[in-house]
Amino acid sequence: MDFEGALCTVVGAGLILLMLGDVFHTLLYPYGSGPVCKTIIRGFWLLSRSVRRRASTISAPLAMAAVVGAWAGLAVLGWALIYLPHLPESFVYADGVPQHGDFGEAVYISMVTLSTVGYGEIVAEQPLLRFVVALEAIGGFGLLTATVSWILQTYPALSRRRALAHHLNLFREAAGPGGVSSLDPQHASGLLESLAKEVASVSIDLLSFHETYFFHEDNQRGSLPATVAYAQQLASEAQRHENPELQFAGRMLNAALDDLAEVLRGKFGHSGTTSSAVLDSYALHHRHRQPPDPNTR
């Protein structure tokens, strides 16, 4: 193998390692996201904020599709560069199949192998190369199942966040202006403890499924950024109540909201010295609050 072939092999192996590392950090590492995934999703998010509001609701699903496409593209190009120095002499061609031996042919072989289609008109001849082709086929099957699992795990996390927002809206409508003070203290404390558990679950989801943060809810009833301020209000009211059980439930909900604010501050860069400021920034980032007017005094 000459220098050019060795260079193609090294670059191809690098692209494959980049893909594998990104898949590992995004799908297998519990509290991370790979650089390719993070860059694409943040890029789609920033782009959606500069265009019409409707685009923000589809930016995250499109970004996830782009991430999967990027992983597949890196794998196809990486393996193609590994095959290229060995074309066409190290492959057996079926009768009537032209032998080009160029980059396009290497990409075709890589795509067919990664997708496990296996037409069989071009087959590796050398034992080591046959092993490499089989390895790509196994990797392609693994990538397919991993991305399907990723999608199936993401949407339940989104459903839990929407359920919390709906729960808060139902609580607000049922309690009315009186809030927790209008309810039986024991009943209210149970409801607040349930809300605290839901908030804690959302915090864990944001840590485990980084991409769910970038899903924008156009309907405010299902949007946590639009309703989380009411949860803070409930926690404050409960802590000021004279009933000890309700006070404890209020502290529990407040601690859960503090944890959520810490996740938003540390993981997604929201500024603010207090939890209220961070959660206000969260609502503003998702366009459920208007930025302050600098001309207003």
| Helical residues, percent | over 70%
Number of domains: 2
The portion of residues forming beta strands comes to under 5%
Count of strand segments: 2
Rg computed from alpha carbons, rounded to a whole number of angstroms: 26 Å
Low-confidence stretches: 288-297
Work out the helix count: 9
Averaged pLDDT:
88
* Amino- and carboxy-terminal Cα gap: 73 Å
Output the strand order for the largest sheet: 1-2
**Spatial shape:** elongated
Order of helices and strands: HHHEHEHHHHH
Structural class: mainly alpha
Sheet with the most strands, sense and barrel status:
2 strands, antiparallel
Outline the fold blueprint.
Elements: H1 3-28, H2 35-49, H3 53-83, E1 91-93, H4 103-114, E2 122-124, H5 127-175, H6 185-208, H7 224-240, H8 244-268, H9 275-285
Antiparallel strand pairs: 1-2
Helix pairs in contact: 1-3, 2-3, 3-4, 3-5, 5-6, 5-7, 6-8, 7-8, 7-9, 8-9
Task: Write structural notes for this entry.
- By secondary structure, the protein is mainly α.
- The chain is built from nine helices and two strands; from the N terminus they run αααβαβααααα.
- The radius of gyration is 26 Å and the shape is elongated.
- Strands 1-2 form a two-stranded antiparallel sheet.
- The protein folds into two domains: 3-125, no CATH class; 158-285, no CATH class.
- It has helices at 3-28, 35-49, 53-83, 103-114, 127-175, 185-208, 224-240, 244-268, 275-285, and strands at 91-93, 122-124.
